[in-house]
Model the fold of this input.
Amino acid sequence: MADLKRRTLTLITGKQIRLFGNSIAIGKSLEVGEGYAPNIFSCTLDQTIEKPLATPSNPHKLTVEEIMDLADYNIQLWMDLKANIRKYGLDSSRIFNSEALK
Done:
């Protein structure tokens, strides 16, 4: 299984991809890239105290149900990408959601 440590994505084959940020994102078009801005739900460190304290940042005040809905949405996009790759192969543009590309 892939692993992400110290801004390096290591794949099952051993291939490593250096990232600029610390997350991978998938869009409605099923294109994959880096997710740079942790501005919906993230962890922040309060470094004004001697021992930094990590706290969740939830600027949109999302509920547990809304976070779960967001997770389900992203999981479905990844599952759709996997299904399309199995169906069309890696060299076909039909992998992507063409409606979302417009």
Q: What stands out?
A: The first strand starts at residue 3 and ends at 5. The CA atoms of residues 1 and 68 lie 23 Å apart. The chain has a mean pLDDT of 89.
